[in-house]
């Protein structure tokens, strides 16, 4: 048997029309993952897998790929020995048939010992196939599984892909791997930049791919290298004109996916446009034209932009002028919207919300605003916000959605509402709340800082969660069209990180009551509570909290998220204590004993029934700390409470060493269980530490 360990680098590149920029990185990674999975399945060992992606190509390079599968022995199991031979020791028809099926004589078969006795078998030596015979299918399988929502066909071809395909390159070392990929015979040629080097370029071997494309083809195929180059060029371009570039990571990724050979160019626009809010100008530049913006030393938006050209022009001034011409009407539109929107008070947009459906069963955005007016006041009362201010913030909260500016740039919702409210001299806290109601917009985003904004943001998220959940549209899998999971996590972050001591169950109940279409019930309130709190699992996991620690608190179902956070902190502290392992095990044992109890336990412990010194000792220890622990729990000082409770460890250990809990005498048994239950219930006021390992 031969073990084929010789290796060569492998390269595959699919050349296409320009690929969808926002999907490029996802497609390239999925292509590489599919190939990696195919190599594992084919039992072809290999080194590092490199992912390459540019507007007109997806490529994968695999280092040190085994050029042929290793030979292996495949054991084929036949009949049991007792059924393989007759009484005279002659092979039965079953054994003869098995041998024929294997293409061998009976004498070539072997005996194998199994748990069920001796069986007949044949060890077939399977020769490894050359990688060149397997790679075409592996690549095609990976391409077939790419996450492409809608595939297209072109010309008279029956081939389907995300964009028309023009070439397919596949090399194993210096050898072309023969295959047909998306309608194209594979070769060792690629093509360079559409304008700089459209001719065919030969790739001698996989290791040459990046350098050859760069030097001959004006293409940087490595996505991350290209992104870094763009970042550096943008920062340098901004510095060259005395500015500081603001680089949005999503925009950088999209621009990287649009350019094979990026070249930064600085352009200018009329300073009169700076009278428009900076966010609107930035949206016009980034959203429409994929331009980067920059700020001056005072943090003010500059009347300049940076565009990334996909060509090294012999006339950069022409590229600059062309981009300046293109951006001017976009900025003019933004200025027009700004001027038009300010011709009426923000509140005048409110009636138009009656024409926009929030959700068919839950009514319009106007209906949502009416609910928010009530709920924001309720939340705000707990935060010390006057009813008048809370109601005003809620009333104006969605008005900007009907403005011209937000109609053109939806990402400016809230932002423009703040500007329009400031223009008409609304209270600053009302104006800020209109913007901050959407915070946190994404993971790690800032949270609303003022009490009014916090109240509005909580009310807005609660209204969406309780309404959508209440009509049965529970998120499942990847489907969460109303972003309830994000809303739930945002809701919790606002409460926990701002230390707002609010009753989540009560707020859910109050919010449900405002939905005429949702029938309130204790069951629904608890379901929504569970849905919201479950978001904390990943939130705390990111902070190093284990699943067991989280579960120890979750089962106690604290109504206040701030209280939940304090218990988590206490459980983490407890887990570091010397007594943690012993007390966790003891609580688990107590929990298991209590589950066996039929009926109810005595509410009080009868000390007259104590028969062992360890019982009295444990009772004394419990009584000694009961009052202080109760005070600590009442003050929500769970770290101190669990620290106090940890002091009972030695007495608990002694109790379990010396006392037979499940005594035959019923009165004795129930009294001992009642004593253990009091300890267990005291711990439960912090967390169920029996769930810790």
Write up this protein:
It contains 26 helices and 18 strands. The mean pLDDT is about 95. The strands form seven sheets. Strands 2-3-1-7-8 form a five-stranded antiparallel sheet. About 40% of the residues are buried. A hairpin with a 3-residue loop joins strand 17 (about 355-360) and strand 18 (about 365). The two termini are about 50 Å apart. The chain is flat. The longest helix has 26 residues, at about 315-340. It has about 700 residues and is α+β, with helices and mostly antiparallel strands.
List keywords for this structure.
693 residues, alpha+beta, three-stranded antiparallel β-sheet, 26 helices, 13% strand, flat
The end-to-end span amounts to 49 Å
Low-confidence parts lasting 5 or more residues at pLDDT below 50?
none
Average pLDDT for all residues: 93
**DSSP helix fraction:** 40-55%
Number of E-state strands: 18
Biggest β-sheet: strands ordered side by side in the sheet: 2-3-1-7-8
List the total number of helices.
26
Largest sheet: 5 strands, antiparallel
- What oligomeric state do these chains adopt? single chain
Strand content: 5-15%
Shape: flat
**Radius of gyration based on Cα positions:** 35 Å
How does the helix and strand content classify structurally? alpha+beta
């Amino acid at each position: 048997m031969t073990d084929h360990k010789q290796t060569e680098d492998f390269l595959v590149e699919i050349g296409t029309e320009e690929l969808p920029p926002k999907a490029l990185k996802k497609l390239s990674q999925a292509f590489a993952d599919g190939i990696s999975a195919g190599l594992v399945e084919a039992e072809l060992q290999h080194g590092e897998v490199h992912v390459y992606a540019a507007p007109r190509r997806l490529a994968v390079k695999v280092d040190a790929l085994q050029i042929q599968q290793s030979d292996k022995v495949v054991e084929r199991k036949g009949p049991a020995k007792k059924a393989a031979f007759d009484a005279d020791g002659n092979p039965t028809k079953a054994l003869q048939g098995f041998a024929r099926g294997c293409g061998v004589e009976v004498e070539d078969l072997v005996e194998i010992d199994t748990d069920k006795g001796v069986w007949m078998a044949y060890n077939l030596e399977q020769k490894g196939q050359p990688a060149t015979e397997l790679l075409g299918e592996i690549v095609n399988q990976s391409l077939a599984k790419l996450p492409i929502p809608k595939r297209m066909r072109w010309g008279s071809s029956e081939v389907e892909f995300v964009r028309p395909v023009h070439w397919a390159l596949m090399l194993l070392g210096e050898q072309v791997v023969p295959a047909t990929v998306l309608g194209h015979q594979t070769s060792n040629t690629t093509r360079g930049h559409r304008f700089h080097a459209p001719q065919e370029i030969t790739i001698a071997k996989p290791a040459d791919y990046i350098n050859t494309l760069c030097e001959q083809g004006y293409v940087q195929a490595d996505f991350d290298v290209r992104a870094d180059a763009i970042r550096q060029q943008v920062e340098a371009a901004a510095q060259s004109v005395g500015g500081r570039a603001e680089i949005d990571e999503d925009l950088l990724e999209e621009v990287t996916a649009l350019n094979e050979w990026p070249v930064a160019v600085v352009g200018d626009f009329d300073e009169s446009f700076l009278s428009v809010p900076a966010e609107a100008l930035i949206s016009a530049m980034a959203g429409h034209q994929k331009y980067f913006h920059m700020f001056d030393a005072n943090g003010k938006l500059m009347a300049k932009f940076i565009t990334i050209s996909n060509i090294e022009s012999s006339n950069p001034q022409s590229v600059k002028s062309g981009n300046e011409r293109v951006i001017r009407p976009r900025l003019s539109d933004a200025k027009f919207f700004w001027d038009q929107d300010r011709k009426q008070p923000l509140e005048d947009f409110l009636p138009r919300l009656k024409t926009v459906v929030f959700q068919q069963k839950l009514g319009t955005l106007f209906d949502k605003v009416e609910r928010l007016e009530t709920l924001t006041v309720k939340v705000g009362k707990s935060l010390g916000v006057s009813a008048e201010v809370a109601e005003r913030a809620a009333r104006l909260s969605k008005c900007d959605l009907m403005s011209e500016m937000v109609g053109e740039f939806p990402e400016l919702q809230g932002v423009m509402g703040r500007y329009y409210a400031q223009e008409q001299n609304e209270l600053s806290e009302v104006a800020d709340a209109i913007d901050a109601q959407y915070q946190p917009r994404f993971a790690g985003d800032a949270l609303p800082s003022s009490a009014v904004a916090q109240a509005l943001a909580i009310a807005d998220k609660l209204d969406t969660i309780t309404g959508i959940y209440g009509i049965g549209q529970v998120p499942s899998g990847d489907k969460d069209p109303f972003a309830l999971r994000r809303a739930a996590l945002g809701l919790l972050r606002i409460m926990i990180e701002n230390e707002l001591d609010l009753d989540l169950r009560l707020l859910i109940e109050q919010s449900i009551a405002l939905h005429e279409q949702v029938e309130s019930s204790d069951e629904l309130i608890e379901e929504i509570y569970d849905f919201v709190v479950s978001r904390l699992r990943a939130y705390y996991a990111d902070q190093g909290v284990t699943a067991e620690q989280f579960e120890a608190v979750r089962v106690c179902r604290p109504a206040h998220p701030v209280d939940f956070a304090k218990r988590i902190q206490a459980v983490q502290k407890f887990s570091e204590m010397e007594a943690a392992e012993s007390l966790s095990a003891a609580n688990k044992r107590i929990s298991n004993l209590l589950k066996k109890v039929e009926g109810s336990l005595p509410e009080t412990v009868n000390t007259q029934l104590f028969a062992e010194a360890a019982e009295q000792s444990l009772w004394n220890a419990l009584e000694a700390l009961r009052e202080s622990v109760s005070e600590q729990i009442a003050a929500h000082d769970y770290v101190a409470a669990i620290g106090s409770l940890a002091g009972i460890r030695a007495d608990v250990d002694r109790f379990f060493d010396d006392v037979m809990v499940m005594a035959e005498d019923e009165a004795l048994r129930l009294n001992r269980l009642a004593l253990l239950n009091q300890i267990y219930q005291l711990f439960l006021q912090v967390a169920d530490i029996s769930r810790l390992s």
